[in-house]
Amino acid sequence: MAGTSTYFLRGAFILTLLVTSFFADTALSSDESVVVIIHPSVTTNSLSRNLLRSIFSMRLRTWENGLPVSVFVLPDDAPLHSIFAKQKLNIFPYQLRSTWDRLVYSGTGQAPFIVHTELEMRTRIASTPGAIGYLSESMINDSIQVVHTDE
Questions:
Q1: Helix H segments across the chain?
Q2: How far is 113 from 105, CA to CA, in rounded Å?
Q3: β-pair partners for 135
């Protein structure tokens, strides 16, 4: 019987860690400001959440002006990627990854371009017509355009 209570306590401890981790991540996401950015050649200044989801799930392939959409994201384990997915798309990062993997493995589409730093994200968005991505608010400069989104 002592073994059963030990397993129960371990399970309770692990559950507590998971719940604490989830709420700590949620607290982080409300403190960090993430903004959607585009190349200045894109002629829009706001995007609905549904349109943003279509873009980042790689379903929308061209902008209204005919430019191809080039999507840039940080790696799956980057904290800002998680904040972006939860705040702006209202989905979990693993749901995005699942969508991209399905497109790639079925041969019907491609995954977004992965950049490894916010500086690289800003540089690639600024130099790629039709590009879209995201940054923390502190990384914004005149080389890119901020897009307003529904939240």
A1: 2-31, 49-56, 79-84, 93-106, 118-127
A2: 16
A3: 35
Are the CB atoms for 128 and 39 separated by under 8 Å? Answer: yes
Per the CB < 8 A criterion, the answer to whether 96 and 104 are in contact is no
Query: Which residue in the block uniquely carries the two structure tokens 């790689």?
Result: 58
How far apart CA 141 and CA 46 sit, in angstroms, is 18
- Residue identified by tokens 């995007």 is 47
- Structural contact between residues 89 and 151, judged by C-beta atoms closer than 8 angstroms: no
Three-state DSSP at 99 gives helix
What's the mean pLDDT in 39-54?
94
What's the confidence (pLDDT) of residue 32?
65
d(CA 151, CA 48): 9
Q: Report the DSSP beta bridge partners of residue 132.
A: 38, 71
Question: Which of the 8 DSSP states describes residue 69?
Answer: P
Tell me if residue 56 falls in helix, strand or coil: helix
The model's pTM is 0.78
Query: 100, 61 in Cβ contact below 8 A?
Result: no
